[in-house]
Amino acid sequence: MAVLQEYKCPCCGGAIEFNTTVQKMKCPYCDTEFEMDVLKEYDDALKNEPTDDMTWDTTPGTEWSEGEDENLASYVCQSCGGEIVCDSTTAATSCPYCDNPVVMMGKVSGMLKPDYVIPFKLDKKAAKEKYLSHIKGKTLLPKLFKDQNHIDEIKGVYVPVWLFGADTDSHIRYKATRSRTWSDSKYIYTETSHYAAIRGGEIGFAQVPVDGSEKMDDTLMESIEPFDFKEAVDFQTAYLAGYLADRYDVDAESSIERANQRIKFSAEEAFRQTVTGFATVTTESSSVALKNSEAKYALYPVWLLNTTYNGKKYTFAMNGQTGKFVGDLPMDKGAFFRWFFGIGAVASAVSFAAMYIIYLLS
Amino acid sequence: MKKVLSIILALLMLSLPLCMSASAMSTTLLVDNAELLSSTENTEISKQLAEISEKYSCDVVIFTTEEGEADGDGDYAEELYGELSYEDSDNACILLVDMGSRKWEYYGRGLAHKAVNEDGFNYLADKFEPLLSEGEYYDAFSAFIDGCDELFEMAENGKPYTEPFSFCISFFVALAIGIVLAFIVTAVMKGQLKSVRSKADARDYVVDGSFKLTENRNIFLYRNVSRVVKPQSNSSSNGRSFSSGGGASKGGGSF
């Protein structure tokens, strides 16, 4: 039985017909003409495109061995409900996320043991210095905010993260264009050649972190990346001494989507670098299949500072390993308008004077 | 004897103005092929043209036609300029009025080039173009001659016409520059306060040496050609065109 082959226009998606006048395939909707061989090759490429296969083997964390968690104490924040874990010798008094008092609940239970921990490399003194440097030189920062001293409230917290690693098989199709321009006495002509750039290959990712704490803002945690996993060690409760540890409340399964987004985006960008010699390149379709996937549970060191200004909460975080400090600051609206109108008035006056001088000189 | 000498003297005095205007009249300064002027008006305009040509030793010519070949860019006037014989071919100007295409063109060299820069061209056109549109041809040509007189005089005094400084327009342009600059600077200041941004990629976690390209092909699909009208580099305001170079000013417009 004969099968009716139908091709879709790569330009507009309409069904293409054979045009007897030009002896080519021609789209009746956008009038674009195609060679038969090109359409066949493009159609084959579309048919052979695989679909995403981004399933993970997620068995992160381990069970505590007998007596291992005896020296850990659990606290619960009465305000945000966050559960904090710390060494029994460390007295936790307030929640590192909302600054409200925490209540001791007793021993840790129902919590997986982390696979790895990156120990704090920078101390509180370094965090204070970074905070002072962070608020320095910010013209629109309210003076009152600068004057209030919050730096003693900085707390060292081990934030739970899920680490995803896998080799990937990627197959990506990009839409690429190349242009040339020429002109005659009346018109400027632009000829645009359209290509389907197909790339495939492998790329591996290791320890892509996803925040496992609901109370810790994901964007804040991503802002202090990267962490250097080479300095991670197998988890020992001894590393918690003097610090607080947040107990994960977002499980590994729920964190997969964010890891997949980041891995897929990076794969598309990496292969895009090989599409050269074109004026424009845009990703049209991509599929990523994971191999040798694994997920691990780790604690990453973060210095946290929470403060409230004019009724709004501001959180600052410093990577406890690299010292990268982030945190959005409040803006002095009065200063903003003063600067805006001041610069506007001076620039307008200078521009007006310059125009008048140019007129006189010409 | 005294009577004979006084007759000779009178004849000499009468012939003197004729000799003076001979250079200006070596070319017909008014050619009204489109018959836009009555005979009286024709005589008057011819007289004005002769006077200004003589005053500045620069032939000022007005040429009307119904051919419809002028397109307002000054090329046709330039062609006509070459065909007419001037006393001094490098110091004259022509105003061409084409009733067929409803276009006018100007071409000038020498003083008529120095005096009619872009500002002068627009000043001149503003004087006579509205009158041409209203069909007031005599008044239009008179206004053209008056305008040339003003511009030539300024050029001869070493100060060719320049458009007066527009305080109002300059004020608003300066204000716009100030606002844009203030917006950019304060946006940078606001940007300093923001440091929390999500990370869309995972490039920091790519395993060294893991990237392998196994498929690499580009399929040519199709090409298309688009065209846009070339912008005229010599365009001027009010739908007119003007260009200056090679010792000449030329341009034109519609009426």
Can you walk me through this structure?
The complex is a heterodimer of chains A (362) and B (255). In chain A, the strands form two sheets. In chain A, strands 4, 5, 6, 7, 8, 9, 10, 11, 12, 13 and 14 form an eleven-stranded mixed β-sheet that branches. Chain A folds into three domains: 1-48; 72-168 and 199-331, no CATH class; 335-362. Chain A is flat, with a radius of gyration of 29 Å. Chain A contains six helices and 14 strands. With 362 residues, chain A is an alpha+beta fold. Chain A is 23% helix and 35% strand. Chain B has 255 residues and is an alpha/beta fold. Chain B has a domain at 30-161 and 243-253: Diaminopimelate Epimerase, Chain A, domain 1. Helix content of chain B is 45%, strand content 21%. Chain B is built from eight helices and seven strands. In chain B, helix 3 (39-56) packs parallel to helix 7 and helix 6 packs antiparallel against helix 7. Chain B starts with a helix and ends with a strand. At the A-B interface, strand 3, helix 1, strand 8, strand 9 and helix 4 of A face helix 8 and strand 5 of B. Strand 9 (187-211) of chain A pairs antiparallel with strand 5 of chain B, so a sheet runs across the interface.
Oligomer status: heterodimer
How much beta of chain B, percentage-wise? 15-25%
Structural class of chain A: alpha+beta
Q: Kindly provide the name of the CATH class of the domain at 30-161 and 243-253 in chain B.
A: Alpha Beta
Give the strand line-up of the largest sheet of chain B. 1-2-3-4-7-6
- Characterize the overall form of chain A: flat
* Poorly predicted segments of chain A: none
Distance between the termini of chain B: 62 Å
Q: Specify Rg of chain B, calculated over alpha carbons.
A: 31 Å
Computed Rg of chain A: 29 Å
Characterize the largest beta sheet of chain B: strand count, sense, and whether it forms a barrel. 6 strands, mixed
Number of strand elements of chain B:
7
Biggest interface goes to: A-B, 89 and 54 residues
CATH architecture of the domain at 30-161 and 243-253 in chain B: Roll
Total of domains of chain A: 3
Helix-strand pattern of chain A:
EEEHEEEEHHEEHEEHEEEH
Count of helical segments of chain B? 8
